[in-house]
């Protein structure tokens, strides 16, 4: 078993894992990620998305997809973990912890102030796992999201006029 940065050859497996995650999170109809989209996000000249994969038996069986955020209060970057997924048959083997440890190591090496993510309220196995690592819930915070028509409507009121009508599907 090993964890390493994602490579172009991993893109099909990572897309498959993201779709598996969507099914696990009871939202398969909301996941539209393609290999082309993921490849462009990860490997363009100025990537905004980064990733790691977990391998077992020479197969990609888990992934962590993340991007940088920034705390204006502390004045330093952090990592936001967008997706963490390990196939069910490989859970409990240490791969999820190894993926998170790889991101924590990046935070420490680069002087980033935090590693954060969201978890669904009903996902008790994940919540227990995260708590076992010392992660704490941000109970006083509520996530808000603008998508679809509401995003288009607000964007149309901005100083630049009407935004593009080709909005990416939200997750």
TrEMBL record:
Residues in N-acetyltransferase domain copies: 1-157
Pfam family, one: Acetyltransf_1
Residue ranges of coiled coil: none
GO MF, any single term: N-acetyltransferase activity
Superkingdom in the source lineage: Bacteria
RNA-binding among keywords: no
Keywords: Acyltransferase, Transferase
SUPFAM superfamilies documented for this protein: Acyl-CoA N-acyltransferases (Nat)
Cross-referenced PROSITE patterns: GNAT (PS51186)
InterPro entries from the UniProt entry: Acyl_CoA_acyltransferase (IPR016181), Diverse_Substrate_AcTransf (IPR051016), GNAT_dom (IPR000182)
Transmembrane spans: none
CDD domains from the UniProt entry: NAT_SF
Protein family (similarity comment): Belongs to the acetyltransferase family.
PANTHER family: DIAMINE N-ACETYLTRANSFERASE (PTHR10545), GH14572P-RELATED (PTHR10545:SF29)
Listed name of the protein: L-amino acid N-acyltransferase YncA
